[in-house]
Amino acid sequence: MSKNLILSLTNFVRSLERLFLPYGGHPPALALAGFQHEHSTSSNKRAQEFSLKELIGDGMLWAVPKHRRSVEKRLNRKFGYPEYVWKPLKVKRNIRSCQTCGHDHELGVLCPFCYNKVLKETEQMQAKIQEKLGLDPVDKEVIVLYEGEKAEQTAEQLQGKRIVEMKKPRPMWFTKNLLQKSTQQQSEAKEVKPSDLA
Ligand SMILES: [Zn+2]
């Protein structure tokens, strides 16, 4: 099938050459003057020798585009689509400085520096808790206390709880009231000091 196709193609090219180029093909673009090129000497012989195999050699035919891409398409491929993917760099206008540490972060996103700080502290606390509890079931409430905080707690507060102590002072940013329960019993007191509100 393919052999027949190549043969017929060869014949077609040959007949085309005979039709349009009576001397068996045009001379090469860089021809020396006064030099007897094989094109001009043996046109008939040359036409007979011509074959598709010679033309292609050891290479292969690649698929090539048949139609030219329009300017719009080319520009879209180069720069992307503004509404979908815009490739050139854009100025970000949603960058804010962190109020706590001063590092820059995107608006509506946690500051990565502060987040990492909390993450590391949490990992340390988890490691400490794991060290203390081991594989025991968690049957009691676990509270984490920093250095010097156990003395502040009353015996009533520590009763029936597992205490995990961190061997370092409490970080400045880690306030105590973060650990307070959100579902607290309403107090009976009518007057509350402003310092007790938090
Ligand atoms: Zn920060």
From TrEMBL:
Keyword Glycosyltransferase: no
Molecular function GO labels: structural constituent of ribosome
InterPro entries the UniProt entry points to: Mitoribosomal_protein_bL32, Ribosomal_zn-bd
Gene Ontology BP terms: translation
Compositional bias (Polar residues): 177-187
Intracellular or extracellular location(s): Mitochondrion
Keyword annotations from UniProtKB, A to Z: Mitochondrion, Ribonucleoprotein, Ribosomal protein, Transit peptide
Basic and acidic residues bias: start-end ranges: 188-198
Disordered, as annotated region: 177-198
Gene Ontology annotations for the cellular component aspect, listed alphabetically: mitochondrial large ribosomal subunit
Predominant cellular place of this UniProt entry's protein: mitochondrion
Highest rank taxon of the organism: Eukaryota
PANTHER family: 39S RIBOSOMAL PROTEIN L32, MITOCHONDRIAL, LARGE RIBOSOMAL SUBUNIT PROTEIN BL32M
Entry function: Component of the mitochondrial large ribosomal subunit (mt-LSU). The mitochondrial ribosome (mitoribosome) is a large ribonucleoprotein complex responsible for the synthesis of proteins inside mitochondria.
Family: Belongs to the bacterial ribosomal protein bL32 family.
Protein name: Large ribosomal subunit protein bL32m
